[in-house]
Amino acid sequence: MNQIRKTKIQNIGRASRALLWLITPCTVFVYFMIIFFVLFFCFTSSGALSSTDLIFAILDQEEGFFRLIENKGLLISARAFSITIFLYLFIPCIFLLKHLKQVLLCFYRGDIFNTTALMHARKAYAINLFIVFSGIALHLIGILTVLSIKGRFEIDYLTDWASESANGLIEVAISTLLIWAFELGTDVNAEAELTI
Fold first, then answer.
1. Could you tell me the residue range of the domain that residue 38 belongs to?
2. 11 Cβ partners below 8 Å, 6+ apart?
3. Read out DSSP for 62-129?
4. What total of structural domains would you count in the chain?
5. Is 29 helix (H, G, I), strand (E, B) or coil?
């Protein structure tokens, strides 16, 4: 192995170690958010806010979202809806972080283009696709719900959705290119090991 390649592998190992130090607090933060929001929606006072009222508040990006919930209270159906949507979006984040951690552990050990790292990278990629497309779809469903109830078209909702969708699709495109490069590198590495 030449010196330049060895230096690059060591640099990838150092960067992976630093990122591993960041993944653990991120995972703890996601667990904390899940526990906090589930408890918040379970123990908030009963009241008159329905699921559609919550969707209005989220899409209007009211600064007093939590104050609105505390002041008016939630119906039981709104609590169940909120907890379901929240868990639907945040539980995949835990699995995404788990697979990213496994990829970084492989990189840290110097196993950059191997099948184990590729397997975890593919799983992280699939979970990321699920999160991005679920977010886009849920946002669109929320907008359509609000527009059907209000009975009038508001361009602000669609421009917010379009910009967030564009960001998500750009992220997916970059992730796709990276996973293809990773697969190609793993194939080349496997072929090189067979010829040696």
1. 3-195
2. none
3. -TTHHHHHHHH-E-HHHHHHHHHHHHHHHHHHHHHHHHHHHHHHHHHTT--SSHHHHHHHHHHHHHHH
4. 1
5. helix
pLDDT at 170: 96
pLDDT digits (tens, 9 = 90+) for 164-195: 999 999 999 999 999 999 999 888 888 877 77
Q: Average the pLDDT over 37-54 and give the result.
A: 84
Judge contact between 117 and 103, C-beta under 8 A. Answer: yes
Here the tokens at position 149 are 């109830």
Tokens representing 38 are 């589930």
pLDDT per residue over 116-145, tens digit each?
Answer: 999 999 999 999 999 999 999 988 988 888
Answer for the pair 113, 186: CB distance below 8 angstroms, yes or no: yes
Backbone dihedral angles phi then psi of residue 33, each to the nearest 5 degrees: -60, -40
